[in-house]
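User: Show me a protein chain along with its predicted structure.
Assistant: Here is one chain, sequence first, then structure tokens.
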Amino acid sequence: MMSSNLEKRRGLMLVISSPSGAGKTTLARKLMAEFDTVALSISATTRTPRPNEVEGQDYYFKTHDRFHDLVKQGAFLEWAKVFDHYYGSLKSETEAKLSAGFDVIFDVDWQGADALHDQVPNDCVSVFILPPSIEALASRLDQRPGSTPEMVARRMADAKAEISHWRRYDYCIINDDLGMAYSQLRNILLVERMKRLRQNNLAPHVRALLGED
């Protein structure tokens, strides 16, 4: 679905978080498949590219020194160290997309969501995806290829820690039925797009109505 007036709307940052296995990746992919004005944020990282990964499409690959220089320059909206590698969301890339009218999806945890909201509260809309039950979440994790009881137990502990921060988010969706959950996420996007601050054409239109041009 293409917007007919991309230049008249500022995009938004749609921050989606969930415990592993709750379905945020599936929901984000469905949103991008329907709306060609919705894009996934591309992170910078210090890890080595995998054979099938493309610079600027999967990640922006940086050396550790370059990444730390960017941190000092304040070039990231948020960044974090995950195991031995750093990941961060570049301000310049996000701003270019928002200014062009594209909505940008961020797949981050609650700490990343907090950092993004603190940096750009007017652009940020946060959604937390909840599983229907702890039992359903454990079952989903157990069914993943290569899962072991130890891995499931660790992910369940991480899930409960992540879920405890649900009140920090603007919206929460219980993913009991994928179709219903997607409909709710889609409605959030459409409503948030209509907020006054994101309608670039409103101020000149009102000035014309008032004869101020």
